[in-house]
């Protein structure tokens, strides 16, 4: 069996004692409530006005 030694920062060591990972996990902001409301408004506007069909420009 091998022995492994790892050096970690003090704050990461504290997180280890708290039994948590040393970073925050968050959901994809695309699905946030604010963005979903904006998308619903855009859909309603497109359904009302018909909108304009165009190609998406990835450089914009």
Structural commentary:
With 60 residues, this protein is mainly α. 42% of the residues lie in helices and 0% in strands.
- Outline type: elongated
Helix content: 40-55%
Number of DSSP E strands: 0
What is the beta-strand fraction? under 5%
Cα-atom Rg, whole angstroms?
A: 24 Å
What is the distance, rounded to the nearest whole angstrom, between the alpha carbons of the first and last residues? 56 Å
Q: Runs with pLDDT <50, length 5+?
A: none
SSE order in H/E notation?
HH
Overall average residue pLDDT:
81
The biggest sheet, with number of strands, parallel, antiparallel or mixed sense and barrel status, is: none
* Class per helix and strand makeup: mainly alpha
Number of helices: 2
Mind sketching the topology for me?
Blueprint: H1 10-17, H2 33-49
Please sum up the structure shown.
The protein is mostly helical and 60 residues long.
For the structure shown, list the relevant keywords.
2 helices, mainly alpha, 60 residues
């Amino acid at each position: 069996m091998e022995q492994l030694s790892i050096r970690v920062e003090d704050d990461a060591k504290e997180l280890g004692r708290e039994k948590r990972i040393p970073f925050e996990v968050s959901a994809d902001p695309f699905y946030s409530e604010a963005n979903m409301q904006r998308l619903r408004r855009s859909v309603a506007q497109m359904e009302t006005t018909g909108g304009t069909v165009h190609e998406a420009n990835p450089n914009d």
